[in-house]
Amino acid sequence: MNWLTDYVRPKIQGLLYKEIPDNLWKNCESCGQMLLIKDLEKNLNVCPHCGYHIRASTSQRLEWTFDEGSYTKIQLPKTITDPLQFKDKKKYIDRLKENRNKSQQDESIAVAHGKILGHNTVVAVMAFEFMAGTMGSAFGEGFLAAVRLALLKKLPFIVFTASGGARMQEGMVSLMQMPRTIIAVEMLKEAKLPYIVVFTNPTTGGVTASFAMLGDIHIAEPDALIGFAGPRVIENTVHEKLPEGFQRSEYLLEHGMVDIVVQRHALKQTLAKVLALLCNKNQPLEN
């Protein structure tokens, strides 16, 4: 037995090479650069190399949006968990449990109220981390609860969209949330309360075909995918090559579907200015 090779060297290597946790780094989805998660979060999940806006969690959205990250979340109404008793490779009810554990969210929407640079506002955030932000009966109830809160408090309503569309496991029940959310938006308009939609990447399917396109003001983060069907589906249907940047924020801005494209760092200030204009109030100069 070679004492130096078999015993001393492994001990030294064990001291020099410590195991690095795999949750410290993240690769940018656009440029591929390796980013330290701690620094990335300080930069609001925007890649410092290429400016790509990496998807944010629901809790991050709420923290970034409200003053000093202070807000009050509301309890959302309970609904039938599995209206169709759906099952594919696994039971729908089991998928819901998995997603709740993984995302730490009860459903694909969170609703809170608080101040945005001094403006009292109700905010709903779609949780893409929960079943890709899909819209089911619980989402519909959550959206209606947010609108009722805005009506009760006579406050503007902002929704951050991020969704893959309707939830297939709920079939027609999911599709019925489209007219329900549209009616809710009409209630806001009748009450003359501002309704602002902030599109984040991606916003697709029934969400785009319903409440997301009815805002008084449409704001989008850069390069967000916004549309009903995906680009590949459209290309395969029409058998034509789509224009460069089709269904992205900047393309929709050029064609009048989006009012403004805003970098994430400037989003809070922009929302405050829009709220001041729509609510006919003086805009606070400082946070």
Tell me what you see in this structure.
This protein is α/β, with parallel strands linked by helices. It folds into two domains: 1-54, no CATH class; 55-278, 2-enoyl-CoA Hydratase, Chain A, domain 1, CATH 3.90.226.10. Helices cover 37% and strands 16% of the residues. Strands 3-4-5-6-7-8-9 form a seven-stranded mixed beta sheet, sandwiched between helices. Strand 5 (119-126), helix 5 (137-153) and strand 6 form a beta-alpha-beta unit. Residues 283-287 have low confidence and may be disordered.
Task: Please give a handful of descriptors for the protein shown.
alpha/beta, 37% helix, 287 residues, 2-enoyl-CoA Hydratase, Chain A, domain 1, seven-stranded mixed sheet
Provide the CATH architecture of the largest domain. Answer: Alpha-Beta Complex
Structural class: alpha/beta
Outline, from the CA principal axes?
Answer: globular
The percentage of residues in β strands lies in 15-25%
Overall CATH class of the largest domain: Alpha Beta
